[in-house]
Design goal:
six-stranded parallel beta sheet; 18% strand; glycosyltransferase; alpha/beta; transferase; 43% helix; globular; binds 6-O-phosphono-alpha-D-glucopyranose; 490 residues; single chain; Glyco_trans_20; 18 strands; Trehalose_OtsA
Length: 490
């Protein structure tokens, strides 16, 4: 289950409805898994006010959940993307708290839970994805205690001092604790969650295990799957909360990168840009968490100070349109486009653009060609759950060349240690890293890229989903790892 289906419904001017692959890393990550499983994908079809019948797409059974225009505004644009999104990303933007949005979030989560409850076979495994659906695990457990329920949070889980702002902080924790296994991108995210559970609920946690007390007056209490006695003699069900860093279908990227037509397209891109010595690339959803402004500032200053020459270096920035009806995103677009315009106005020449700015989404083939053309990849997120673009760049570089500049605030930096790791708030440091990347000798580039590729090719998305599902199945059989681990105190 995820807010977005793997396909979006689009209605063209003639009123004809078609489906196209939907945006975002989540879909990229799950499609290969779902194809291989005999599963049903429950999600929203991407348009408001339309009831869509269940259907099949690319061998996946799809069960659409309808949202009204008002729910789209309150549950999706409001609570999901203007409350939870900024709150969970370190309040880079100010979260808005509105009680009507919360009510709508509860209502829509209930609808998703009911849809899954109706579709799941007895004892089935249900895997719920991301921050839009955090209440679903408990809602589902309530009506279907036979199900094995997993939840994966694709975005960061914030430190307690930030999380505790949320007026509905306890309800969200209760919602998530309905799952048997709760997955996070980073060890730090899982730690933040466990701490919030201790502080807000007073439950004990041991290593990755959370002990949720069972209300023995509840007639359903006997139906819980893995019940055990805690050190105080009380009955608890155990929930596993730990990191499962997500990845990509690395082999699919490699395969595209080896195609002669795509390599030819990469050469063509270089040519179209006027054959600069160095191409730097940024690829992001147009989101304030991505640090696009910081990247542009650093690049602009390097041109201003004459440390970079516009005839030799071009920055290509792909910014795919996202959440365009949310005010913060509109403002961001204006800011970024103003900055790009200024940099080009000040430094471009007739023959050489400084920043080639593209406000579009592109098919995978074109993205791979861009990655192959890019000497330096810039991932400068201020906060990011994982950042799959970093992994896509690495998987694409079958030539073992190219330099990845990677923010330490992206989850990917836990694994991709051989990237040039940067703090995007430190503009001087970012400028130095850009220059270091441009000047890096081939031997060093290859050494780093080889190490990065090994990580990404080994830990691909198939391994990610297999390890999550394995933990889920084990927990369903009452296997409680680290039962004897010491109690966490803080
Ligand atoms: C992130 C989130 C996904 C979301 C995607 C695109 O990757 O983790 O849950 O689907 O962004 O955002 P959108 O709001 O367009 O679904």
């Amino acid at each position: 289950m995820s807010n977005r289906l793997p396909v979006d419904r689009v209605v063209d001017e003639a009123g004809q409805a078609t489906w196209r692959p939907s945006p975002g890393g989540l879909v990229t990550a799950l499609q290969p898994v779902m194809r291989a499983e005999d599963g049903v994908w429950v999600g929203w079809a991407g348009v408001a006010g339309e009831e869509v019948e269940p259907f099949e797409a690319d061998g996946i059974s799809i069960l659409p959940v309808a949202l009204s225009e008002q729910e789209l505004q309150e549950y999706y644009e409001g609570f999901s993307n203007d409350t939870l999104w900024p709150l969970y990303h370190d309040v880079i933007a100010q979260p808005s708290y509105h009680r009507e949005w919360w009510d709508s979030y509860v209502r829509v989560n209930r609808r998703f839970a009911d849809a899954a409850a109706g579709a799941a076979a007895p004892g089935a495994v249900v895997w719920v994805h991301d921050y839009q659906l955090q209440l679903v695990p408990a809602m589902l457990r309530e009506v279907r205690p036979d199900l094995v329920i997993g939840f994966f949070n694709h975005i960061p889980f914030p430190p307690y001092g930030i999380y505790s702002q949320l007026p509905w902080r306890r309800q969200i924790i209760d919602g998530l604790l309905g799952a048997d296994v709760i997955g996070f991108q980073r060890v730090a995210d899982a730690g933040n969650f466990s701490r919030a559970v201790r502080r807000l609920k007073g439950y004990e946690t041991r290593g990755p295990i959370i002990e949720v007390p069972i209300d023995t007056d509840d007639p359903e209490s006997g139906s819980h799957r893995h019940v055990t006695t805690n050190r105080h003699g009380g009955l608890v069900r155990t929930v596993l909360a730990r990191a499962f860093p997500i990845s990509i279908d690395a082999e699919a990227y490699q395969e595209l990168a080896r195609r002669p037509a795509i390599q030819e397209r990469a050469r063509e891109i270089r040519e179209e840009l006027g054959n600069p010595e160095t191409i730097m690339l940024g690829v992001d959803r147009l989101d304030y968490t991505k640090g696009i402004g910081h990247r542009l500032k650093a690049f602009g200053e390097l041109l201003r100070d004459g440390r970079l020459d516009v005839e030799k270096v071009t920055l290509v920035q792909v910014a795919s349109p996202s959440r365009e009806r949310v005010e913060t995103y509109r403002q961001l677009r204006d800011e970024i486009e103003l900055t790009v315009g200024r940099i080009n106005g000040d430094y471009a020449t007739l023959g050489h653009t400084a920043v080639a700015y593209l406000h579009h989404g592109y098919p995978k083939e074109e993205m791979v060609a861009l990655y192959l053309a890019a000497d330096v990849m810039l991932v400068t997120a201020l906060r990011d759950g994982m950042n799959l673009v970093a992994k896509e760049y690495v998987a694409t570089r079958v030539d073992e060349d190219g330099v990845l500049v990677l923010s330490e605030f992206a989850g990917a930096s836990d694994e991709l240690r051989q990237a040039l790791l940067i703090n995007p708030h430190d503009i001087e440091g970012l400028k130095d890293a850009m220059l270091q990347a441009i000047a890096m000798p081939k031997r060093d580039r290859v050494r780093r890229m080889r190490a990065l590729r090994k990580k990404v090719l080994t830990n691909d998305v198939a391994r990610w989903s297999a390890s999550f599902l394995e933990a889920l199945t084990r927990s369903a059989h009452g296997d409680h790892p680290l039962q004897d681990a010491p109690v966490n105190r803080r």
